[in-house]
Amino acid sequence: MRxxxxxxxxxxxxxxxxxxFFVAWSLTHYAMESAVRMGPGYFPVVLGGLLLLLGALVIxxxxxxxxxxxxxxxxxxxxxxxxxxxxxxxxxxxxxxxxATAAAVFIGALAGHEFRWKEVSxxxxxxxxxxxxxxxxxxxxxxxxxxxxxxxxPIR
Length: 156
Hints:
The chain is mostly helical. The chain has 2 domains: 6-64; 75-138, no CATH class. It is built from 4 helices and no strands. It has helices spanning 6-29, 42-64, 75-109, 117-138. Helix 1 (6-29) runs antiparallel to helix 2 and helix 3 (75-109) packs across helix 4 (117-138).
Protein backbone atom coordinates (compact mmCIF):
# COMPACT_ATOMS: atom_id res chain seq x y z
CA MET A 1 0.00 0.00 0.00
CA ARG A 2 1.40 3.37 -1.04
CA UNK A 3 0.72 6.60 0.82
CA UNK A 4 -0.05 9.19 -1.84
CA UNK A 5 -0.23 12.20 0.46
CA UNK A 6 2.00 11.83 3.54
CA UNK A 7 0.90 15.22 4.89
CA UNK A 8 -2.77 14.19 4.88
CA UNK A 9 -1.90 10.73 6.20
CA UNK A 10 -0.16 12.05 9.30
CA UNK A 11 -2.88 14.65 9.86
CA UNK A 12 -5.43 11.84 9.77
CA UNK A 13 -3.36 9.78 12.21
CA UNK A 14 -3.25 12.78 14.55
CA UNK A 15 -7.04 13.31 14.34
CA UNK A 16 -7.76 9.62 14.85
CA UNK A 17 -5.30 9.40 17.73
CA UNK A 18 -6.81 12.36 19.57
CA UNK A 19 -10.31 11.06 18.90
CA UNK A 20 -9.49 7.56 20.19
CA PHE A 21 -7.80 9.00 23.27
CA PHE A 22 -10.78 11.18 24.19
CA VAL A 23 -13.29 8.39 23.57
CA ALA A 24 -11.32 5.98 25.74
CA TRP A 25 -10.63 8.56 28.45
CA SER A 26 -14.23 9.77 28.61
CA LEU A 27 -15.64 6.25 28.75
CA THR A 28 -13.38 5.31 31.65
CA HIS A 29 -13.84 8.51 33.67
CA TYR A 30 -17.45 9.61 33.07
CA ALA A 31 -20.90 8.06 32.92
CA MET A 32 -22.22 7.85 29.36
CA GLU A 33 -25.98 7.30 29.93
CA SER A 34 -28.13 7.79 26.78
CA ALA A 35 -29.05 10.37 24.13
CA VAL A 36 -32.28 11.17 26.01
CA ARG A 37 -30.55 11.53 29.36
CA MET A 38 -26.99 12.59 28.58
CA GLY A 39 -24.35 11.99 31.20
CA PRO A 40 -21.12 13.97 31.54
CA GLY A 41 -19.31 11.55 29.22
CA TYR A 42 -21.78 11.66 26.34
CA PHE A 43 -20.61 14.85 24.64
CA PRO A 44 -16.85 14.10 24.82
CA VAL A 45 -17.45 10.59 23.49
CA VAL A 46 -19.53 11.87 20.57
CA LEU A 47 -16.96 14.56 19.70
CA GLY A 48 -14.09 12.09 20.07
CA GLY A 49 -15.94 9.63 17.84
CA LEU A 50 -16.48 12.31 15.20
CA LEU A 51 -12.79 13.23 15.38
CA LEU A 52 -11.88 9.55 15.03
CA LEU A 53 -14.18 9.27 11.99
CA LEU A 54 -12.69 12.41 10.45
CA GLY A 55 -9.20 10.99 10.97
CA ALA A 56 -10.18 7.73 9.28
CA LEU A 57 -11.61 9.63 6.31
CA VAL A 58 -8.48 11.75 5.95
CA ILE A 59 -6.27 8.65 6.16
CA UNK A 60 -8.37 6.90 3.50
CA UNK A 61 -8.21 9.95 1.24
CA UNK A 62 -4.43 10.17 1.67
CA UNK A 63 -4.09 6.63 0.33
CA UNK A 64 -6.17 7.39 -2.76
CA UNK A 65 -4.83 10.78 -3.89
CA UNK A 66 -1.39 12.26 -4.38
CA UNK A 67 -0.41 15.22 -2.27
CA UNK A 68 2.47 17.18 -0.80
CA UNK A 69 5.23 15.69 1.27
CA UNK A 70 5.62 16.51 4.95
CA UNK A 71 7.78 19.59 5.46
CA UNK A 72 10.80 19.57 7.74
CA UNK A 73 9.80 20.01 11.38
CA UNK A 74 11.16 23.08 13.17
CA UNK A 75 11.66 22.57 16.91
CA UNK A 76 12.91 26.07 17.77
CA UNK A 77 9.57 27.89 17.25
CA UNK A 78 7.68 25.16 19.09
CA UNK A 79 10.00 25.30 22.09
CA UNK A 80 10.06 29.10 22.24
CA UNK A 81 6.29 29.50 22.00
CA UNK A 82 5.86 26.93 24.78
CA UNK A 83 8.47 28.79 26.84
CA UNK A 84 6.60 32.06 26.25
CA UNK A 85 3.39 30.55 27.62
CA UNK A 86 5.21 29.05 30.60
CA UNK A 87 7.01 32.33 31.30
CA UNK A 88 3.70 34.18 31.27
CA UNK A 89 2.20 31.73 33.75
CA UNK A 90 5.18 31.74 36.08
CA UNK A 91 5.81 35.49 35.94
CA UNK A 92 2.23 36.63 36.48
CA UNK A 93 2.31 36.49 40.29
CA UNK A 94 5.80 37.81 41.07
CA UNK A 95 6.15 40.07 38.02
CA UNK A 96 2.61 41.24 37.48
CA UNK A 97 0.67 41.66 34.26
CA UNK A 98 3.14 44.08 32.70
CA UNK A 99 6.27 41.96 33.17
CA ALA A 100 4.55 38.67 32.30
CA THR A 101 3.01 40.04 29.09
CA ALA A 102 6.23 41.73 27.97
CA ALA A 103 8.27 38.59 28.65
CA ALA A 104 5.80 36.42 26.72
CA VAL A 105 5.91 38.79 23.75
CA PHE A 106 9.71 38.94 23.65
CA ILE A 107 10.18 35.17 24.03
CA GLY A 108 7.46 34.46 21.48
CA ALA A 109 8.99 36.91 19.03
CA LEU A 110 12.28 35.03 19.21
CA ALA A 111 10.46 32.08 17.62
CA GLY A 112 10.16 33.94 14.32
CA HIS A 113 12.85 34.26 11.70
CA GLU A 114 12.92 38.06 12.03
CA PHE A 115 13.41 39.76 15.38
CA ARG A 116 13.65 43.53 15.62
CA TRP A 117 13.97 45.05 19.09
CA LYS A 118 12.10 48.23 18.20
CA GLU A 119 9.09 46.48 16.65
CA VAL A 120 8.86 43.86 19.40
CA SER A 121 9.11 46.57 22.08
CA UNK A 122 6.24 48.52 20.51
CA UNK A 123 4.11 45.36 20.25
CA UNK A 124 4.90 44.48 23.88
CA UNK A 125 3.97 47.96 25.08
CA UNK A 126 0.71 47.95 23.11
CA UNK A 127 -0.20 44.49 24.44
CA UNK A 128 0.61 45.47 28.03
CA UNK A 129 -1.63 48.54 27.79
CA UNK A 130 -4.37 46.59 25.99
CA UNK A 131 -4.23 43.77 28.56
CA UNK A 132 -4.41 46.28 31.40
CA UNK A 133 -7.39 48.08 29.89
CA UNK A 134 -9.31 44.92 29.01
CA UNK A 135 -8.60 42.64 31.95
CA UNK A 136 -7.92 44.96 34.88
CA UNK A 137 -10.12 47.94 34.05
CA UNK A 138 -12.76 46.45 31.73
CA UNK A 139 -13.34 43.02 33.29
CA UNK A 140 -12.11 44.06 36.78
CA UNK A 141 -10.04 40.90 37.18
CA UNK A 142 -7.74 40.96 40.21
CA UNK A 143 -4.48 40.65 38.28
CA UNK A 144 -1.37 42.16 39.85
CA UNK A 145 -0.18 44.87 37.48
CA UNK A 146 3.27 45.72 38.83
CA UNK A 147 5.92 43.38 40.20
CA UNK A 148 5.29 42.29 43.78
CA UNK A 149 8.62 43.72 44.95
CA UNK A 150 7.51 47.27 44.09
CA UNK A 151 5.68 48.48 47.17
CA UNK A 152 4.26 51.74 45.80
CA UNK A 153 3.01 50.71 42.39
CA PRO A 154 1.49 53.77 40.67
CA ILE A 155 -1.06 51.61 38.83
CA ARG A 156 -3.61 49.81 40.98
